[in-house]
């Protein structure tokens, strides 16, 4: 893969996938202006930390990706580009959300 193609891929991933999905999900998973509400509320319900809550939710995405990778050896099982992109985007977004939880906890500034 050339550097130019890779750079275009990174732009596509960060702008067209990650940011669009992250912004679109705000209404569904946030409350009271808190982007991290869903993790805090789940943590409260299960009496765990918001980090453990996020880890559990992300595990679903990581497990799905792992299963899909296992399926690559099966010539009868294929996934669409859209399906792969959805799974990757969800997992990447959880990494960003973890970063945000850490930034809030430790008062990191941009």
Provide structural commentary.
With 110 residues, the protein is mainly alpha-helical. It has one domain (3-106). It is built from five helices and no strands. It is globular and about 45 Å long. The two termini are 32 Å apart. The mean pLDDT is 94.
Compile the SSE list and pairings.
Layout: H1 3-24, H2 26-29, H3 37-46, H4 50-71, H5 81-106
Helix pairs in contact: 1-5, 3-4, 4-5
* Strand percent estimate: under 5%
**Total individual domains:** 1
Calculate the mean pLDDT score and round it: 94
The termini sit apart by 32 Å
Oligomer: single chain
Outline the low-pLDDT stretches. Answer: none
Number of helices: 5
Gyration radius, to the nearest Å?
Answer: 16 Å
Question: What's this model, at a glance?
Answer:
With 110 residues, the protein is an all-alpha fold. Helix content is 76%, strand content 0%.
List its traits.
110 residues; mainly alpha; globular
């Amino acid at each position: 893969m050339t550097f130019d193609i890779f750079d275009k891929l990174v732009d596509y991933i960060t702008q067209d996938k990650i940011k669009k999905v992250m912004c679109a999900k705000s209404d569904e998973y946030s409350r009271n202006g808190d982007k991290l509400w869903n993790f805090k509320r789940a943590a409260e319900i299960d009496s765990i930390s918001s980090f453990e809550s996020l880890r559990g939710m992300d595990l679903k995405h990581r497990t799905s990706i792992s299963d899909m990778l296992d399926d690559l050896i099966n010539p009868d099982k294929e996934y669409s580009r859209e399906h792969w992109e959805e799974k990757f985007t969800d997992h990447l977004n959880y990494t960003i959300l973890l970063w945000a939880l850490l930034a809030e906890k430790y008062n990191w500034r941009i």
